[in-house]
């Protein structure tokens, strides 16, 4: 399968600058980028030609932290901090996913919104429930989206309906791993966070992760009360990150930790050493009064950072809105730090939203040769006069002031997503 997409191509190969190819041709073979050409005399007959002249062609957005099961709660419960928010709004909603019919309705709406917002790769939490998790995986696969999906594991400090038997939680997780066959939608081990996972559960999940080489996702240092609680639960372990590390869930296989606001320098160093990704969830951090992650510090340490919508702590799946909030948050952090932690630039954050988070999937989020041809077609004609603005300014205007109506095409591996 060979395809050529023509349009105004823009992406980030590194975080400091954009690669811009106006009026150019993106050449794709078997879903993988082969080349970008500025001139083609005639389209070879064995290529399908997709002419998007005057439209922007950008990488699909990558969301490396979100809770699909909280989709119907989006916009609710904005009056509490993390722990009461979980107990009051989030756990009761997640308990409903025991009912497969409820899950089908909710997840169908969720997947449709994910596509509308142009998110082609995502790292997702479902709930503790095996059947509805497998339904979601199948739905994403049929939609041709790329994703890691994690059945949540919890065996302490949650409501009765969500509190699992430790062995059963591990067994069901293994069943999902063994039954998943898709190349695009894969399982990820998901101990919710330290307060809701016993040491036995964490150890068991680590063994599974290593046995099957499955990645891991969890939450780290999102809220000051949460950090205190972890210290009370594990007084002998020096810090929150080290709890995961001690139980084999911190980079022993590919790992992403969400939030990472109240981490010490030692913890950030451990993330760097173990190759742990950070998912920055700026919008959720505002909504739950969690705080502002010092992203610049992570970049200085060389930690991989991607963006997470973290619905329904976050109130939208829109990665463009996460990009804007991330830049705004970094400017406040700059002021708060006496102008030490320099604000994030547009290219740095666009990179996080594409190639930075995409690294968790390997060759995702860029148009360099060998990358998966996951792309969005953006019609920005209502936002910019293309004769007046260059391609980069048009992109920035779209990210800051556009919306999903500007997205007229979504492709994963050069296949149209629907
Ligand atoms: N920490 C543990 N569970 C959650 C969750 O569902 N959302 C957020 N934002 N933080 C969490
Ligand atoms: Fe979260």
From TrEMBL:
Q: Which UniProt keywords apply?
A: Hydrolase, Metal-binding, Zinc
Q: Please name the pathway.
A: Purine metabolism; guanine degradation; xanthine from guanine: step 1/1
Which InterPro entries has this protein been placed in? Amidohydro-rel, Guanine_deaminase, Metal-dep_hydrolase_composite, Metal_Hydrolase, Metallo-dep_hydrolases
Q: Record's SUPFAM superfamilies?
A: Composite domain of metallo-dependent hydrolases, Metallo-dependent hydrolases
Q: Write down the required cofactor(s).
A: Zn(2+)
Q: Which family does it belong to?
A: Belongs to the metallo-dependent hydrolases superfamily. ATZ/TRZ family.
- Provide the protein name: Guanine deaminase
């Amino acid at each position: 399968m060979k395809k050529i997409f023509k349009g105004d191509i823009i992406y980030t190969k590194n975080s400091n600058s954009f690669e811009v190819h106006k009026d150019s041709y993106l050449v794709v073979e078997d879903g993988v980028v082969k080349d970008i050409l500025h001139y083609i005399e005639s389209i070879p007959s064995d290529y399908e030609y997709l002419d998007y002249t005057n439209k922007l062609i950008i990488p699909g957005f990558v969301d490396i932290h979100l809770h699909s099961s909280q989709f119907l709660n989006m916009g609710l419960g904005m009056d509490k901090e993390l722990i009461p928010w979980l107990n009051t709004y989030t756990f009761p909603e997640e308990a409903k996913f025991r009912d497969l019919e409820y899950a089908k309705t909710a997840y169908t709406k969720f997947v449709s919104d994910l596509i509308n917002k142009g998110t082609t790769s995502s790292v997702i939490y479902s709930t503790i429930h095996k059947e509805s998790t497998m339904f979601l995986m199948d739905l994403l696969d049929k939609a041709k989206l790329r994703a890691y999906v994690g059945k949540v594991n919890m065996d302490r400090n949650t409501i009765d309906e969500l509190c699992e038997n430790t062995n059963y939680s591990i067994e069901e997780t293994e069943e999902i791993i063994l039954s998943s066959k898709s190349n695009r939608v894969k399982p990820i081990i998901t101990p919710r966070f330290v307060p809701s996972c016993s040491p036995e559960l964490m150890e068991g999940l680590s063994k599974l992760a290593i046995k099957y080489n499955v990645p891991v996702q969890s939450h780290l240092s999102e809220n000051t009360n949460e950090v205190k609680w972890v210290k009370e639960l594990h007084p002998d372990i020096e810090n929150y990150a080290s709890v995961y590390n001690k139980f084999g869930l911190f980079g022993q296989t590919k790992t992403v930790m969400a939030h990472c606001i109240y981490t010490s320098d030692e913890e950030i160093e451990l993330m760097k050493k173990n190759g742990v990704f950070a998912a920055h969830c700026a919008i959720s951090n505002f909504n739950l009064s969690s705080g502002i992650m010092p992203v610049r510090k992570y970049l200085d340490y060389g930690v991989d950072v991607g963006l997470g919508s973290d619905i329904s702590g976050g109130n939208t799946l829109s990665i463009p809105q996460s990009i804007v909030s991330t830049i705004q948050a970094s400017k406040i952090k700059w002021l708060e730090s006496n102008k030490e932690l320099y604000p994030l630039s547009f290219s740095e954050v666009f990179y996080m939203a594409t190639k930075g988070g995409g690294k968790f999937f390997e060759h995702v989020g860029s148009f360099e040769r060998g990358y998966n041809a996951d792309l969005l077609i953006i019609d920005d004609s209502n936002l910019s006069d293309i004769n007046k603005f260059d391609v980069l300014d048009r992109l920035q205007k779209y990210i800051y002031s556009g919306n999903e109506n500007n997205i007229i095409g979504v492709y994963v591996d050069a296949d149209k997503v629907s």
